[in-house]
């Protein structure tokens, strides 16, 4: 493949590297060339947490990647999965893409093979993406895996070195590297190649990978009805309006993605039918054009003259992708992020404000690119005046397209325009004839909204409105559910002499269901306390309600009994008397701070992590009893251990250590290492320790379980 793979064109006078990523060009090009890939891309982290942006691209137009110019880590794509899982992700065929990443498959409905691998050094910098034609093996070879991972390691070292002496700045826009063919180029070849093409019985064109015409033979110009000069440097569907059809552009996109020959027929007015065949490779596309016979045509010709210019196929695919993504947006914040990160770039806008209707006013739900003073003026503007474009569009339900400042000032002479904006699309968000809000997209230059763009934006507004309506309902339910759960957890932990404490509850990130995780610290006397942690089965209101009952029962039994075993036994019998279908794990630890002793009993709960002064922390060896709610005659063995000054005890629920593809013993050992401290017996930043424990949770995607952590540290 070394004879026809991509390499780098040295930047010319107008090719300044504004993004500061030129040091990554050569490793990317070499990897693409050595592995025979069609397309290579590098994503790097953004300044916004958990966000990655396209930095470098080779082998395809950047327009093909518009839906993924900026990608939140939570978005399911091969690249984000590679970053989260820190491993190679291989998609061997189109069906695998449909099964694993339906949103990507909708936006790019072509067969190809894809590899994504993480670029990780001192931090998770990003991901490397490679694409091959569908003729490539569906399985990665050992050589390919080794090359991809070694390239990622080199890229990570380069970014580490680059940022060691300077502040990291993400690239403002992706750089597209030129692909050229590595063939010996003798001086006479240019005229000879032109003479060769002129002698062919078919017309010949050459396109670069961006779709622009780089060569036209005389016969091709004659067949297309334009001069060679008129066609050179243009996109065919722009210089030849009769090719401005999604079907034809789709064939071009298919050729670029699959590197397979494609063919189609088109009618050149008034009645000349032409046959096109595209032959792609890594440097561009060769096109042969020949007559395909005369077409019948009054009807066809008339349709060609009168039909409106169809939508760009890339925009249609973007719309399908965005529609799919909007159905997955759960909260209002998710909708705002999706619109800002994917929809705004797709339409070349530079700023966005998304309003929600609340009590007759427009409230800002989210924005990008708007100055703070403008937001303060816009937030809470009344609907009944109709003076501003956003209020007018919301109340009338009709979109507004303002292509220039002059047009804005003529229609709204008394309204202050945000600085730096020169065109606006004001889209009412309406469902069931009820206004939900308004979406305003702003442009930094005058913008002509053609009929195609207006139609797509209007359709998109309907999808955004539906997503926002669902998201508002979700947010209300989420706040109610988690408000209930927070009300059932302690507001604050009691202060006890000689004991430092800290606790944290972290809800799951997948779905809005609340969990049954709970913790508590109960003062038994001036020198003693009881620490409790547990997890009720299920993620719903019933689980949270039962959690509240168990916590109340434990508090009552803690002051009326003499041992942890008896507390759990009584709580177990109460749970059975409630005739609930749910079960629960629980751990009860009695702390005697005066005697420096502790004893605990466990009802099927994971062992605590215990660190003694000067010794590494490790899981405590315990003998747990049955879960609560299973056996009315269950016994709960007790475990005794000392509480010397400097002892650190960590109680937690299973969400901290259990996850798919994670070994429990390894997870416990990893979290135990987070608890080791340099100064045993001295005050410790327990909140920082909890943060360290939570950071050690493997990032395997949306977290389906809640996490509760309770830390106890004895002082001298």
Give a topology summary.
Layout: H1 25-35, E1 39-45, E2 51-58, E3 70-72, H2 78-85, E4 89-91, H3 94-100, H4 102-107, E5 113-120, E6 124-132, H5 142-164, E7 175-177, H6 189-199, E8 203-207, E9 213-216, H7 218-224, H8 228-231, H9 236-239, H10 246-258, E10 262-268, E11 272-281, E12 284-294, H11 298-306, H12 313-328, H13 332-346, E13 351-358, E14 361-368, H14 372-378, E15 381-382, H15 389-396, E16 400-402, H16 405-411, E17 423-431, E18 434-443, H17 451-488, E19 499-506, E20 516-525, E21 528-536, H18 541-558, H19 564-577, E22 584-592, E23 597-603, E24 609-611, E25 618-619, E26 638-642, E27 648-652, H20 664-674, H21 686-695, E28 707-714
Parallel strand pairs: 2-7
Antiparallel strand pairs: 1-2, 1-6, 2-3, 4-5, 5-6, 8-9, 8-12, 10-11, 11-12, 13-14, 13-18, 14-15, 16-17, 17-18, 19-28, 20-21, 21-22, 22-23, 23-26, 24-25, 24-27, 27-28
GO molecular function, one term: metal ion binding
EC number: 3.1.3.16
Pfam family, one: GAF_2
Highlighted features:
single chain, 716 residues, alpha+beta, Beta-Lactamase, seven-stranded mixed beta sheet, 21 helices, phosphoprotein, EC 3.1.3.16, metal-binding, transferase
